[in-house]
Amino acid sequence: MLGEQKSGARRLPPTDDAKLVRTGSESTVQLALSGNWHNAPFLLLGARHWEDEIISDYREGGAIATAQRPLRNLIDHPVVLLFAQHQRPSLARIQALSLTHGQFAVTLDSVADEGKAGEHGALHWCELLANGLTFDLTGLSPGVAAAMPEMRHFFALDAKAALGDCEAMALTPGPHLLSGGAMIPVLRCLAWLAGELAELENIAGVAWGPAATVCAPGYFRDAVTRWLGGGAFPGLGLTALRTLEDGSLQSEGLSLFTGQELLLVPDAGGDPQRAAKLALRLLHWLVDMGRITHTMSLTGREGEPILLEPQDADGERPALVCVSRGAR
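Above: the chain's sequence. Below: its structure in token form.
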């Protein structure tokens, strides 16, 4: 499975095979050494729900390495690709797409041999390399599907009901990227890679988990392509806007990029249509600027003064950038 020993791998005696043994809530890996099975360490890594999968190089005489891989579909806020029922792509289809585009590569996968490729009860995944960054794609066919996402905002889709019978695949940054938190270059690459995968056959939608949005595949790909080419941030796609009971307009999903959500008080943008346009312009500006740490005054497109005031998180309320008319 590996052409060379991974960095940090342990050198063990030559092994003929390896298998995962589960007993109740405990799991061990057993290695076949000279025809006898021996236990090897197995580790579950905290709330992120990753496992250390044993990787054995049969050709090199027993070089054993561990690699953190998805254990179950419990990663927080993935990008989820929705497919028509029983139409999720296999590893071979992902590999074919990578070769066609030449923009990303499949560098690791969970299918050790053709025999395991037919296992329907397992979680099948592959690692994708794009722009020097690695991402995990889970829920490949014929394995089990990824968990369906929370869906509250729909863009360029006819009806929510049309997605009810879909099956999901999840795209997440690799373990080394998750440990560093959300970084704009990683998020940009994640969105770009999701746009590339949006060209797969039978895909019904692309869900951006942090904003609970679902976009039509073409809409998502075009919006992300424009943004990465220097255009406007996809405020209706990678984030969303919702109207609160008092008439305020609040973003959902911006905190992934800046650590704060945007809140326009009722008088900030005038009528609802103008308020939405102002919010989208501010979303683009805030993603470029980053977190707001002090009160700022801006000038609107019509010369009106706009005041931005940061507010710390309070209980379940996220940290906010409050927008109102006026200057200070």
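The CA atoms of residues 192 and 225 lie 7 Å apart.
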